[in-house]
Amino acid sequence: MGINEKREYFQRFHAELLTSDPGNYRLLNDFTATDAGKNLEGYLKYVAWKADTEGETRVYLVKDEQGSVALFFSIKCGLLYKKYQYDELEPDKQEFVRMLIDAMQTKDEDTLNRYCQSGMYSTEEVQELLVIAQTRMDLKLEERYLQDGAHTLKVDECYSAIEIQHFCRNTSYISDIQTGIPLGFGIFWEIIVPLVCEITAKVGCKYLYLFAADQTNREDVRKLVRYYKNELKFSDVENMTMIKPYYDTDCLGLVQSVSGLRYNREAVWEEFSDMYGGMY
After folding, report:
1. What is the DSSP string of 94-161?
2. Neighbours of 195 (CB within 10 A)
3. What are the φ/ψ torsions at residue 172 (nearest 5 degrees)?
4. Is 162 in contact with 195 (CB distance < 8 Å)?
């Protein structure tokens, strides 16, 4: 079986919204997960139907041509953001910024110049810290004017995102065709990614992200994270902050850009073709 045939095999699966068919409720009892995924199995059986009905999370059953459930996943809107530069500063630089703000607020030009020329930081660093100080002053003024400080988290930038909240294979599912390719891998690239691309063609979205490895031991965590990075092309979060709920305690956040999904989808199959010598 060549790579194209393997892709076509996975493309014959389809993602069905959990509550779109009342008969799906009866299928949930037959879904089983590995020991490490028992919490995901529990979510599907006892929480997912209500969550999908209310629209808080969209839960999908991935079925084969005979209607057997191979896997389930859920997606929801998410948000990533970049903290203000002040929050990223070391404590001594934060203190210096506060000193600058005090001088700027009192319009004490002599003290401000003395701070800037103190030699504590280079000219470039001082200029950067002055900008941060001015930004922080503006935020404080805005907060007093709008009176929204208690209910608003102010950040430097926000990034629209989609979260894959759950992703779990049904261990009870046995395919008649052996492709030599992990079920989750094929379904992610041929079912989930096209769905995400379809959504983002209509709604602006910059990133796809997930929290990996819940209720697993340390070696399992490393193994799963390597799998997500190498095979599903997620990467560590850099220069951004993720909002992690208690539900995802002990899980590692991983991210990839939506703009790279289509390229990565083709690239991973080429990698498989090169690795196993399959016909592409």
Report:
1. HHHHHHHHHHHHTT-HHHHHHHHTSSSS-HHHHHHHHHHHHHHHHHHHHHHHHT-TTT----SEEEEE
2. 15
3. -80, -15
4. no
- Amino acid identity at 74: S
pLDDT digits (tens, 9 = 90+) for 89-135: 788 888 888 888 888 888 888 888 888 888 888 888 888 888 878 87
Distance from C-alpha of 256 to C-alpha of 250, rounded to nearest angstrom: 20
CA–CA gap between residue 75 and residue 89 (Å, rounded): 34
DSSP state of 175: -
Residue 239 three-state SS: coil
pLDDT score recorded for residue 280 = 40
- Report the sign of the C-alpha dihedral through residues 104, 109, 114, 116, in that order: positive
**3-state secondary structure at position 4:** helix
